[in-house]
Amino acid sequence: MSANGINISEADVKTFQNDGAICLRGVLSDHWLKKAAVGIEKTKQNPSQYSENLKAASDSGYYFNDYCNWQNIAEFKELALDSMAPQLAAKLMKSQTTTFYHEHVLTKDAGTSLKTPWHHDQAYYPIDGDKNLSMWIPIDPVAEEATIEFVAGSHRWGRWFHPRKFATNKNYVVESDDKHHAYEDIPDIDGDKGTYKILKWAVQPGDIVIFHMRTLHGAPSNVTATPRRIVSLRYLGDDCVLARRPWTVSPPITGDLQYGDKVMCDTFPLAWSETKA
What is the pLDDT of residues 221-256, one digit of tens each? Predict the structure, then answer.
């Protein structure tokens, strides 16, 4: 298989489906990396109401994140909809369509001690369905000691975990019942790493780390001398529908869809379709 000239093997698809995370090397061109870098800078210069700029008292650097700015940032819109990413997503998800959900900027300045807590993404979102993924796109080289980590196969456990606030590491406040999923506290991954198969990769600009939205993941401090600038692109496949969660979802955007609706509308646009390829 190929996606706009990028070779994607059956082994790559199988690895993603089994492990819930894969690193593809050198798949994003300088053209798209430059757009991603411009988009990140625009986001940081004009952050949205959803942004966080977190800093430990002893640090000089910040851990910044923000999302859902693509409609105001042309570079992100082009990257998300016009690059090879949507077709690549469809191949890995085994989906006939790809819906763009949102982008998420995550930067850690050099010397930032704050960690990204272990979590999985789908519990934050009002989205049910197994065909989904995030593309974690580095703009800077990321050393192994600063890179994102995954628990291999955790997306296939059939378990859902409480989302956590990045600022406090505390669980989201439960506001209602959920008849579809039972949620658990995140296990102590760092305290029991020998129990799990941990995946992580040192990456260069052009590489993409791709993972399922229910794969447990976290990221350590950035104690290196290099800033870590990332933009994630979130995509949904043809089985994804809008779903209730027992807390205020993040991002709190539903595109005016009704619960049970297929996630595809102006807010969550069709990015690729097999019938239009």
Answer: 998 899 999 999 999 999 999 999 999 999 999 999
**Phi, psi (deg, nearest 5) at residue 136:** -100, 105
SS3 154: helix
What one-character DSSP code corresponds to residue 258? P
Tell me the C-alpha distance between 218 and 63, whole Å. Answer: 14
Between CA 277 and CA 275 the distance in angstroms is: 6
Delineate the domains of the chain, giving CATH numbers in brackets: 2-263 (2.60.120.620)
The residues near 269 (Cβ < 8 Å, ≥ 6 apart) are 81, 99, 100
How far apart, in whole angstroms, are the C-alpha atoms of residue 138 and residue 148? 11
Residue 150 CA to residue 121 CA, distance in Å, equals 12
The model's pLDDT over 124-140, given as tens digits with 9 standing for 90+, comes to 999 999 999 999 999 99
Place of tokens 């779903």: 243
**Spatial contact of 200 and 93, defined as CB atoms under 8 Å apart:** no
Residue type, 182: A
C-alpha–C-alpha distance, residues 168 and 152, integer Å: 26
Q: What DSSP assignment string belongs to 159-201?
A: -EE--B-TTT-PBPPP-S--SS--EEPPP-TGGGGGGS-EEE-
List, in order, residues 6 or more apart from 12 with CB less than 8 Å away.
22, 24, 92
Other C-beta atoms lying within 10 Å of the C-beta of residue 84: 19
